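On to my pick:
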Amino acid sequence: MHDAMDRARRIAPSPVVAGASTSELIDTTFLAYNSARLKEACQLLAREVLKPDVTVGWTISGALTPAGLGGSCLAPLMRAGWIDWLVATGANLYHDLHHALDKPLMAGRPNLDDRELRKEGLVRIYDIVMPYEVLLSTDEFVRSTLEFVPTRPFTTPELHAVLGRAAGIARAARGVPHPTVLDTAAELSIPVFCPAPGDSSIGMNLAALSLRGKGPMIDVTGDVNLSAAIVWDAKRAGKKSAVVIVGGGTPKNFALQTEPHLQEVLGLADVGHDFMVQVTDARPDTGGLSGATPSEAVSWGKVNPDELHRTVVVYLDATVALPLLTAYLMERAGRRVPSRLLDRREDLMRGLAAASDHAVR
């Protein structure tokens, strides 16, 4: 007990004053419960994770881009060099395109009459409302962009690079001032994975093209190998690997399964990711992956057991946590040169294949 007290810091904050910066507010007043966990996450990222010798993968789930967090947070994080690779739900990437195409998403209320919305040609994501035409025009953009792409296997990062370049051209033509997730990722050659591409409107439009014998095919096994190759490349170069998980779901599992793929399936010697930060509202006691703790991940080889003290779980709505986290990093973290991992795709895959060939099982 005395040792714990010796390590503890007294809670005696100064009064909050006008003009305090975000980082100052977090460092000095986020002292207990989940505010303290958010402070720990911010400080861990700024002090240890976002360094040149760490490869950082981020994951996003939930409807974050319709809420504007793609342009306000994720794109700036990319431009600062803090996201080396990204895993997202297809919905987040599809709705990201609305912003690039200058399509309106409006702030509404969660208690609107959905029968009336349907009659008026409006669709709702909780308290976000958009005209049905937004979906139709975005569908047309996806199909027209991908219709004449060669009918061959594409990893989802390759597919999203095609969509991102087209989105960047469309955004510039429409005078949209702020970059979005996909066009920023394409510009900076950041691999963007979608582990469940059929579970989104992008996947539905690919399916429509396939009925006419057109459009690319998704190489899901290529996604698994490329994501693992990114982590393996960092480890063989003597670097560390970090995952920052915003939400949970399939993106979380996909990012973390890189280590079981390396160790369990390919037979390569590794010990897991060195850092894990998660923002979630999911409970661990239901047994779902979204709420699974870093400690549980250790048992699967996903997280390095010797680095468990470098993991943080923040139980907080991502729409609250992500802007605060972004602002903190903008004030306290040093910018990094983008790693442009997608430009190195073939080299990364060769490295993983060579290591697998020489693995001792």
Remarks:
- The longest strand covers residues 54-60.
